[in-house]
Design a protein that fits this description.
Radius of gyration: 20 Å
Largest sheet: 3 strands, antiparallel
Number of helices: 7
Strand order of the largest sheet: 1-3-2
Low-confidence stretches: none
Shape: elongated
Order of helices and strands: HHHEHHEEHH
Helix content: 55-70%
Length: 167
């Protein structure tokens, strides 16, 4: 999502300077604006890598989650909890994956009210190719050393924890 010609200055730092002059401390504004811009860059890179595989990042995450399960299947409720999505969003993701033959819904063996989602062989094959594509571009995260990537993950985890994302 980089522009054709990079700007000769960092617009976020310029905005931070103006913010500082006119409003007050700019640390939080600059940090949040930077995170939002990086999110745009990463989403664009990942979407471009996944598009040839007919996947969005949300569908890709769902397939990955299913392969992380011991039996390659999970209840939809658990998928929603782990993906941190509303049940309607999980239903939409599963509907699309099922329409593409990448997952199937099966009855829960002990709970008639629950439905399990299971990745299919086609889903596993698509996931393998898509994973190669996103790992080849390092999920769009460029310019950092492995140590910096770890530090970034730890810093963002602090924000997520503080917001109640996890205990």
């Amino acid at each position: 999502m980089a522009s054709r010609r990079p700007l000769p200055f960092d617009p976020i730092m310029r905005a931070a300077s103006l913010w500082e002059e006119r409003i007050g401390p700019s640390r939080a504004m600059a940090a949040v604006t930077s995170v939002m811009r990086v999110q745009q860059i990463l989403l664009s890179a990942v979407d471009n890598a996944l598009r040839p595989h007919g996947l969005t990042f949300a569908r890709y995450e769902a397939l990955v989650l299913l392969t992380f399960a011991r039996t390659n299947k999970l209840p939809m409720r658990v998928m929603g909890e782990r993906l941190q999505l509303h049940p309607t969003s999980v239903t939409n993701i599963v509907d699309r994956l099922q329409a593409d033959g990448l997952v199937r819904r099966i009855p829960h063996p002990t709970d008639r009210r629950a439905t399990l989602v299971e990745i299919t062989e086609a889903g596993s094959m698509r996931l393998k190719a898509a994973t190669e594509a996103v790992t080849e571009i390092e999920f769009g995260l460029t310019g950092l050393t492995p140590e910096e990537e770890q530090t970034l993950t730890e810093l963002l985890a602090k924000v997520r924890h503080s917001a109640g994302d996890f205990a």
